[in-house]
Each structure stands twice: as C-alpha cells, then as structure tokens.
UniProtKB/TrEMBL annotation, chains A, B:
It is an enzyme of class 2 (transferase). PROSITE patterns: MOCF_BIOSYNTHESIS_2 (PS01079). One of its GO terms (biological process) is Mo-molybdopterin cofactor biosynthetic process. The keyword Protease does not apply. It comes from Sinanaerobacter chloroacetimidivorans. Pathway: Cofactor biosynthesis; molybdopterin biosynthesis. It catalyses: adenylyl-molybdopterin + molybdate = Mo-molybdopterin + AMP + H(+). This is Molybdopterin molybdenumtransferase. SMART domains: MoCF_biosynth. Its cofactor is Mg(2+). NCBIfam families: Glp_gephyrin.
Length: 426, 426
C-alpha cells in the first residue's frame, strides 16, 4: 500500500492538469432543441444583421417624421396613403413627403420613411387619406438593421452550456443544428459483497446499490454519457477485469463503495496494475471525502474511446469514491464534475450561488477543506437562511434535504453563526 | 372581435382553475435514472428501515462499551477475538463480555456488542487477542436500525420534481422504477407569412422562426412533451385546420407569432370556432405580454390525448402568445408554465430565487404587473446585483443575457434603485 500522502484539492487539480492537456474533444452536430444542456463545440457568430431590414414594432403607418412635427389632437396632418406593406415581403414602395404607408408589426418600412405612427393615433378618412394626430420622432417605433446584433458578431463562446433561453438566439442565426462537444463516456462500478440490486429486497447485512445510481444521476446532470452501471464482487480478479473492460468503452471509470481500508488498497493496486502513471492521489484533504483514490492511465490513441481525439496519447481517469453516499456525491461534485467541465467541456462559467445567513457555527476541518450540506429556508424578513444538515456518515436521507453546500477553506477559523455564506446549489 | 377586457394574472388563473379540475393525470413507470426532471405520480414511502441492521460506520472491532471504560494509552484492556463479520452476510456470532469481533465499515454488528472501536486504537497481539487503547461510549461509531429513516415513512410527496440528489434515496427504498406523471403533449404553431425555417437564409422582409423553438425549449424544461413545431401560413382556413389537427394529438396548443391586431383577431375567431367555451382571456394585464389570447376547448373524454384521464370531459388549452420573443417567453414562464406545473404535475414547490440589489429604478406598469428581465453580477463586496436589461421590444439577443426576471406588482410604486429584489432564475 502506498503512503497516505493526502493531497489538497488544488494539488489534485494541478496533477490532473499535467496529464489531461493533449487531447481535444470532438464536436458533433445535434438538432437545435436537443442542444439544451450541451456544451458548445465552437464559438457562435451571427450570420445576419438582426433585424435584417428596417422593421416596424407596431401596427401603424410609416411616415416621414418631419411631416408630423407640430400636429396635435386638435390639429392633425393629412397624409396620402401610398400603399400597404405585406408581411414577409420586400417593400418596393418609395415614400414621398406627404405620404404614409400601412405597415403591420414586424413588417418592412418603405424607403423614404423614417418612423412609425401607431394605428391608435390615425384616423382613416378615405382609401387614400389618413389624419395623423400625434407627432413622431425620427426612428420611433422601428428597429434599424443591426439594432439587435450585427452580422459576424460573436454571440456565444466555445464551452458555453446551452440553456433554454439561448435557443431563440441560436434559431435567429440559423443554427438548425448546433456544434456541441461530445459527451465523455463513464462507467460506474459498485463494489462490495454487501451490495445488491435496487430491485431486490435486502437480507440482513445487505444493502441496495445506492451510490452508483446517485453518482450516475449527478454525472448525467453534468452532461456525461453514463454507459454502464454494474455491481462487482469484492474480489481482486473480478474487479480488475471489470475495470479493464470498462476502460475499453469509457473515458472515465468511477468505482463506488469499498469503504473499508482493505477494499481501498485493492482498488489502488488494481489501478496501478493497469497502466502508467496509476494512482496519483491516495486521499484528498477534504471533509467529507478523504478516502478518495484518483488514478490516471495513459492509453495509446487507438485504444481510446471514440469521442476524445488524442494527439499522442489519451489519459483516462479512474476514481475510487468514498463509500458513504453523501461523501461520494460531494467528491463527485467538487472534484470529478469540475474536472469534467474543465477538461471535456471547456466550460468556465461560474454557477450562480445563493447568499444566505448560516444558522450555526461551522468548524473548519483540521487541514481539510470542509463541505457542509445545507438546506435553504426563508426567515421572517424573507431573506435566505442556510441550515447545516447534520447526519451520521452513513445517512442517505439527508441528501434530499440539501439544497446545496457551503465551502469552508482549510486555513479559516470556521464560520460563525449568522454570518453570510455562499451556497453552491445542487 | 371580442371586447378587450384585459384580465389580471390572478383572474386568468381563477378562470383556468374553473375549467381544469375534473381530470387527473395518468401515471407511468420509468427506470430510476430516467426519472430525473419528472414529477412524482404518487407519494413515496420507505419499504425498509435504514439501516436495516445495526451497522458499523468504521473499520474496527465490535465490543461491549463497558469492557473499555477507563482504558488509556498506558492501560489497555485485552479482549478475546471471537470472530470476523463478512460484508453482506448476517452475523450469527453472539458476543460475550470480554470478547471483540472484527467488523469492516458497513458490516453488521454481532448481538451482544454495543459499539465500535476504530482499528487505529487496537493492537493485535495474536490471532485470538487484541489490546484496546481507547474507551468507547455505547452506540459510538455505529448506526442503529432506522437511524436514517423508518419503514413506511413518507419520503417524497406526489408532485415533487425529482432531482439528481433524490436518486440515491429512491434507490435505497427499492425504486428501480419510479411512478411519474405522464407528460402533457404540446403542439406549437408558428404563424405569419414572414416566418421561414431556421435553416433558411432570410430574404428582405422575412425572419427565421425564433419563437417556436424558444418556447419549445422552455416547455421541455418544464417537463412537457413537445410533439410538433410547425410554421403555418397566415390564412384563416390553413391555421384553423392546423389547430384542429394539433388538438387531436396534444393537450395544449401554443400559437406563436401573429403580432398584428388582425392576426390576433383571426386567432381568437379560430379558437371560438373550434368549441366551447372558446376564448376566455383576450389580453392580460402584464408587461410585457398584454396581447396574449387564452382559449379553452372542452373535449369529450374519448377525444382527449392519451395521458390525461378525464372524468366527464377534458379541457384543452390553446394559447396565443405575443409575437415579440421576450414577451412570448415571459408569458410562457409566468402564465403557461405555472399552469402546467399546477394542473398536470401537481407541483407546489417554489423555485429558489436570488436576492439582489437592483441597479436602477424600475417603474410599475399602469395597472399591469411588470416583469423586468435582469442579469446578475457581483459587486465589489461579492453581493449580487441585478441589472435591468433594456431592449427594444423586437430584440432577441437580450434574452440570453438575462439570468431571470423581477416581478413588480401592478399596484406598487415601482422599485427604487439599490433596493433588494427577488430574481426568479430562468
């Protein structure tokens, strides 16, 4: 067994960065609506001015603004109706001074006009004449070409995670299909002789496979393609074969369970037996999450899973998560998920956090970053308060109460009750 | 054309409630991991005590606590090793005073023991004897049956939206498949002669179909099954046939576009021609979003789309959204989405909002609730500030900058700069 040199999270990130830098993820095209939740594979530029043409934003008459200067309810101006603009059609009318042209919302303004008068301020006298009762300033109630954005403007950067609110803009610039980064593939292996399938009824000593589904759900939330989830017996040979097989089809292999010291040693030995450099981190200075093993295995390019384009070689990540469900999830979110976002998705955007007053003191871990689960509630003044969730280390039910977590740096003196904290939402 | 009696949002909700109360959504079973984002179709109860058995949370020896009272580094107690517990197996050893049994993390404690001593505080003298250097309190380092939750405890309520963090607990209680509410089916029709497919290059006067994809993305985010998205010409007969067809396969039909007054009238006429009660709201007192049309059509049960189980009749919703993209999205989120969550998903949970200081005064609309898009930023003290997004009404690019919106009640005097607001996140 290797010496238990526990790494800080920063040290882990630095080590990972040194191995995972030569590969670049491949791009695939997906239909626009299926792109929600995916990460952009390239920068997105506009292919048109928006709007492309001078457009009315109201129903009314296009006019030359100076024809309407000085008019009022009691003193209208009379204009000649020179025509009507059809929706979706180019307008070939040229408006002369003293004329007006009917334009519906979204319609194209005729040449020579410079503003719109809303239908409410118009009286139609006959087929050829209207009275205008309100003056229009030049450029009022219209959008000029490029008012919204210009052709070749950058709208989204590579690595941006596409949200529902982005779909309209992608549609506006013609992205019926969107270039997104391929999802890395992950296999999750649940180890332990006590672990049974979720659908089974546990006998004394047995426990259902909680962690692998929980981790899979968090991985899928990050945008990972979880290929397989399997329970493996706690035997060196069986586990080694399972990890080897998983590495063939996946970019990442996550081992869940095996809380005991012996199981951890076995996991580390198996990782080391499968390639170089093997285990790079045997324990992380975080609380919870200390018994985390991280291994890196360099593969020849041709062995790598489809989806990652290696230059010289590909590295694959093997992570042995802590056995306790809450610790496994926190390590996944803090270490694995942020690695995946950075390395596979080129994603740099910070999540929105909620500022809240913490209800109790939280102690800093000795030399370890502490991640405290909290649930958010409103106080009487409708401000957010964060209540720490206290749970025995084997508890699973408490995770569902958590809205997120608070990070307490290892060198701090902890957090005093009532002070403001940033809650990272799940 | 009907009189433009504009309804408040509360009036709209009240009207909808009066029509949509007899139906109850059907339940379908989905595999556990696919249940993320779905709404529970029934309450979920635990089927086991968790843990089911007295379980160690450390690697070490099960002992009788009082055998260790008073021991110290310099004065250990010597205990006889009575055996080893295997993971996943029931333990049939009965521990006698003066004995200890090895139990790995997660293993079952033998009868007669009442606490665990961690391996760090043990010295193994020979195969049959250990020295214990630290006293154990009764119940230390163990979980008793039901410590986490008890059998038949309610864990989740019907209508709860399943999150990634819930998957572990659902696994723990054996939900390999989860009962969820069927998704309502929605058709989205984009109307307007100026609208072209996203993949086309717009000619002067034309515009790509922005709204229907944007609305579809928001609908899918809510959990709706968007069946079809189509562009329909601005003709009474064609639009009427399209709505009629859409009603056959969908529970909800959304019409997008048709900003002009004439197009709105046509939409209302078509809804009225298709059944009773027809248009129930012709304009909502909200800003943006006033030109919204809401129609309800009562259907016989056998005509209704699969998925909704009607008692006497089914009502279907037809919504004509405003033409401007941002207005369409705000109306969808504030009116349609909240209706869907309430009626189809029995979902009552409030979203988490972010409290922020607004950077500018926002005026209340005269007699209309105002929804102001904002983007969130950090100030120097790392507090959230909300910057109102000012955009011409036809703008689409500004929506992507928005992190959410702030609601200003119609009867308020607006919001002063620097005051705190609640931002509903997109």
């Amino acid at each position: 067994m290797k010496l238990l040199n526990v790494d800080t999270i920063e040290e882990v990130q630095k080590k990972l960065k040194s191995y995972f830098q030569t590969a670049s993820a491949q791009i695939e095209m997906v239909p626009l609506r299926q792109s929600v939740g995916r990460y952009l594979g390239e920068d997105i530029f506009s292919d048109v001015d928006m709007p492309q043409f001078r457009r009315s934003v109201v129903d009314g008459y296009a006019v030359l603004a100076k024809d309407t200067f000085g008019v009022s309810d009691s003193m209208p101006v009379f204009l000649e109706v020179a025509g009507t603009v059809d929706m979706g059609k180019a307008c070939d009318i040229v408006l002369e001074p003293g004329q007006a042209v009917y334009v519906p919302t979204g319609g194209m303004l005729p040449q020579g006009s410079d503003s719109m008068v809303m239908i409410e301020y118009i009286e139609k006298l006959d087929e050829k004449t209207i009275a205008v009762y309100k003056p229009a300033a030049p450029n009022s109630k219209i959008m000029n070409p490029g008012d919204d954005f210009r052709k070749n403007e950058i709208l989204f950067s590579k690595g941006h995670r596409i949200a529902a609110k982005d779909i309209g803009l992608l549609a506006a610039v013609g992205k019926a299909e969107v270039p997104v980064l391929r999802k890395p593939k992950m296999s999750i292996l649940s180890t332990g002789d006590e672990i049974i399938e979720i659908s089974e009824i546990p006998k004394p000593g047995e426990i259902r496979d909680i962690n692998s589904s929980a981790v899979a759900a968090f991985a899928e939330k990050t945008g990972v393609d979880v290929r397989s989830v399997a329970i493996v017996e706690d035997s060196y040979e069986k586990l080694r074969i399972a990890v080897e097989e998983a590495l063939k089809e996946s970019d990442l292999v996550v081992l869940s369970g095996g809380s005991s010291a012996g199981a951890k040693d076995m996991t580390a030995e198996i990782i080391d037996s499968l390639g170089e450099p093997g285990v790079i981190t045997h324990g992380i200075a975080m609380k919870p999450g200390k018994p985390t093993i991280i291994g890196v295995l360099a593969q020849k390019a041709q062995d790598s899973a489809e989806g990652i384009n290696c230059q010289n070689h590909c590295c694959k990540l093997v992570v042995g998560l802590p056995g306790h469900p809450m610790a496994a999830i926190i390590v996944y979110e803090v270490v694995v998920s942020s690695f995946i976002k950075q390395y596979y998705f080129h994603h740099k955007e910070e999540p929105i956090t909620v500022t809240a007053a913490i209800t109790e003191n939280i102690h800093a871990g000795e030399g370890r970053e502490t991640y405290q689960l909290v649930s958010l509630k409103r106080d009487d003044a409708l401000q957010w308060i964060a209540e720490p969730i206290h749970a025995k280390s084997g508890s699973i039910s408490q995770l569902m109460l958590a809205d997120g977590f608070v990070r307490i740096p290892s060198l701090s003196e902890g957090i005093d009750a009532k002070s403001r904290v940033e809650v990272v939402l799940f």
